[in-house]
Design brief:
The complex is a heterodimer. By secondary structure, chain A is mostly helical. Chain A folds into 3 domains: about 45 residues, no CATH class; about 220 residues, MetI-like fold, CATH 1.10.3720; about 55 residues, no CATH class. Chain A contains 15 helices and no strands. Chain A starts with about 25 loop residues before the first helix and ends with a helix. Chain B is α/β, with parallel strands linked by helices. Chain B is built from 9 helices and 10 strands. In chain B, the strands form 2 sheets. Chain B has a 6-stranded mixed beta sheet with strand order 6-7-8-3-9-10, sandwiched between helices. Chain B has a 4-stranded antiparallel beta sheet with strand order 2-1-4-5, covered by helices on one side. The chains are: A mainly alpha, B alpha/beta. The interface between A and B is medium-sized, with 23 and 29 residues. The structure holds adenosine-5'-diphosphate and magnesium ion. Adenosine-5'-diphosphate binds next to helix 1 of chain B.
Chain lengths: ~375, ~260
């Protein structure tokens, strides 16, 4: 049988999409009620949420006690959460043992942190070029504000605690470990044998040892290597160890990104006469780091949460403050409230990083 | 072989070839491991020459032109570009590479940079040209490859032919003395080959010294003043196009020509 020859003479008209394919109803149908099993799952989940959420809200919000001087008073007032513990100890959770009269310095350093971060995180803010200068000098500014100098009285780092301590370790670790991780990743690919071996040895050693071990080393062993009489600040030692630890992981993440780069990119850069470091800085790293963003942020989040390990060597991070609070007889037994509060702090920070990385990936997408 | 086989509507371009030597290759030998990929290559290129290099796949064409800007290192013999011998001296090699542009089969544009940024990167960072001047130069060359309107797009948003023209403009922005092309049209769809070849013809007419690895025989006829046939790591034959096509000397050339001219139609 022969098919009739079909010829189209007119150009087809372009039409708007059918009405059903957009809007909320469509979304619900596609995502929640697309098939029998999907409908079943949707109802199971709704049922579970109904079981969990109302009692939780009752406990956490409606029956909660915000003002009380002890646990006993809380429990006499209502049977919900006793947030009074957190309210009473709030300053400690934020500053640790940082002297009251000097806390404005920590607050100012915190506010300036955002000014310093903005031009690094976002490329489209006004006066970015000048603000970057501030970002570069921020470590010095923060040091003077937090520790002292230029007429500000000294505050011992041993008195740092709570969220202040977490943020100091987290931000320092993150901003110091990224450049170090990049150098290690490049070193691992180097043509120079010695550099390559040193980088591989360093990375493998650090990855093979738990962070806690490194922190113990930081708190005790390093003293043996230092000349007698020098007291090397415990916080500084912790910062170094956290940075080295994170850098080793970052190096491996970034190496993955570097390996994904086609050799044509190196060749094109070479053929234009770009020397090695410029090739890396302008051509290879921007692309390799972009591919590595999810892994890099993953490492940052891990680092941020790992700061809680410093409790083991006696630093009072939020968990340390929480533990101290709970061992106080007036507030004993409120571990749920205390740990939820600390968890919310960490969640907000880490979720923020995660959202930022998702935004950055979209922002850097150039359509290929 | 008839004119039907090779579409050749245009007259061969006239071009002045000076007696100034730009590239001088003597007894070049190269091995990949045990594999002897280039065998005793001798080639002198004069300023203004347009050389088309052809030959079967794997014959060492890419390797040879990549030895000219030291993307590949040779083990024996000597390669001189503009009087500078290619050695392990990295500084000198970067200096040579500035003067030798290269266009690749797969364009190798920088996908994270716009078309304009692709073109200004090397002038700014290698030649230390002020940004405004570099952008002006870039626009001039983008104009010349006929895509000034794409300057702010990213390479991923362009067609293959457009990308290859950007790659040519990017090389030209360094104002090189020699241009190397490694099969610039073999990754392109047929309708895009023409637009790239037109740009290359234009470049040849402007007097650029060019070494082009290509199987576009129509282009070779029109542009080349010398065609080189390579096989098995050797330069088997070289001649001006008319002689090369009408009167090939070696059997290997004849075989190659008959294969390529048949597959073209
Ligand atoms: N980096 C390399 N390592 C090992 N062998 C290679 C490499 N590059 C090319 N070759 C081999 O060298 C020969 C010549 O390659 P090439 O110069 O790319 O040929 P052509 O460009 O003429 O097709 C081929 O057999 C190829 O497999
Ligand atoms: Mg090739």
């Amino acid at each position: 049988m022969e098919r009739p020859l079909h010829i189209v003479h007119e150009k087809a008209r372009t039409l708007p999409p059918p009405a059903m394919s957009v809007g909320l109803v469509r979304w619900l149908k596609d995502n929640l009620f697309s098939s029998a099993s999907n409908i079943f799952l949707t109802f199971v989940v709704i049922y579970l949420l109904w079981l969990i959420i109302p009692p939780f809200l009752e406990w956490a919000v409606f029956d909660a006690v915000w003002n009380a001087t002890s646990r006993a008073e809380c429990w006499d007032t209502a049977d919900g959460a006793c947030w009074a513990v957190v309210v009473t100890r709030f300053d400690q959770f934020v500053y640790g043992d940082y002297p009251k009269s000097e806390r404005w310095r920590a607050n100012l350093a915190f506010i300036l942190l955002f000014v310093a971060l903005a031009p690094v995180l976002f490329d489209r803010i006004p006066w970015r070029r000048y603000l970057v200068g501030f970002s570069i000098s921020y470590p010095v500014v923060a040091y003077i504000l937090l520790i002292g100098g230029l007429g500000l009285p000294e505050v011992e780092t041993a008195r740092f605690g709570g969220f202040l301590l977490t943020i100091v370790i987290g931000i320092t670790g993150i901003s110091a470990s990224l450049p170090l991780g990049i150098l290690l990743a490049l070193g691992r690919q180097s043509d120079l044998f010695i550099i390559r071996v040193l980088c591989v040895a360093f990375i493998e050693f650090i990855r093979g040892v738990p962070l806690i071990t490194l922190l113990f080393v930081a708190s005790t062993l390093l003293n043996y290597f230092m000349p007698p009489g020098t007291s090397f600040n415990l916080l500084v030692r912790v910062l170094i160890m956290v940075t080295l630890f994170s850098a080793a992981y970052l190096a491996e993440v970034i190496r993955g990104g570097l390996q994904a780069m086609p050799s044509g990119q190196y060749e094109a850069a070479k053929s234009l006469g770009l020397p090695y470091w410029k090739t890396m800085r302008l051509v290879i790293l921007p692309q390799a780091l972009k591919i590595s963003i999810p892994g890099i942020v993953n490492s940052f989040i891990a680092l941020y949460k790992d700061t809680t390990l410093v409790i083991i060597i006696g630093l009072l991070d939020p968990l340390g403050i929480g533990k101290a609070t709970l061992s106080d007889t007036t507030w004993q037994g409120l571990s749920t409230e205390v740990y939820i509060f600390v968890a919310i702090f960490f969640f907000l920070c880490c979720f923020g990083m995660s959202r930022y990385s998702a935004w950055l990936e979209r922002r850097l997408h150039t359509g290929h | 072989m008839t004119d039907q086989d090779v579409p050749n509507t245009q007259e061969p371009i006239a071009g002045t070839v000076s007696d100034e030597v730009v590239i001088d290759i003597t007894s070049l030998n190269k091995w990949f491991g045990d594999f002897h990929v280039l065998k005793d290559i001798n080639l002198t290129v004069y300023r203004g020459e347009r050389i088309v290099i052809c030959g079967p796949s794997g014959s060492g064409k890419s390797t040879m032109i990549r030895c000219i800007n030291r993307l590949e290192k040779h083990q024996r013999g000597k390669v001189e570009v503009d009087g500078i011998e290619l050695t392990d001296n990295i500084k000198k090699m970067d200096q040579v590479r500035r003067e030798v542009g290269m266009v690749f089969q797969h364009f190798n544009l920088f996908p994270h940079l716009t078309v304009l940024e692709n073109c200004t990167l090397a002038p700014i960072w290698v030649r230390r040209m002020p940004r405004a001047e570099a952008e002006e130069t870039a626009m001039r060359y983008l104009d010349r490859v006929k895509i000034p309107e794409q300057a702010s797009k990213y390479p991923g948003q362009l067609s293959g032919g457009q990308q290859q023209r950007v790659a040519i403009a990017r090389s030209l922005c360094m104002e090189p003395r020699v241009m190397l092309f490694d099969e610039p049209t073999s990754a392109l769809d047929p309708e895009m080959i023409k637009e790239v070849l037109e740009v290359m013809v234009d470049l040849a007419e402007s007097g650029m010294t060019m070494l082009v690895v290509s199987h576009e025989m129509g282009f070779a006829r029109q542009v080349a003043n010398r065609i080189i046939f390579m096989d098995d790591g050797q330069i088997v034959e070289q001649a001006p196009p008319t002689e090369f096509f009408q009167n090939p000397k070696s059997d290997r050339t004849k075989l190659f020509l008959s294969q390529i001219l048949h597959s073209e139609t």
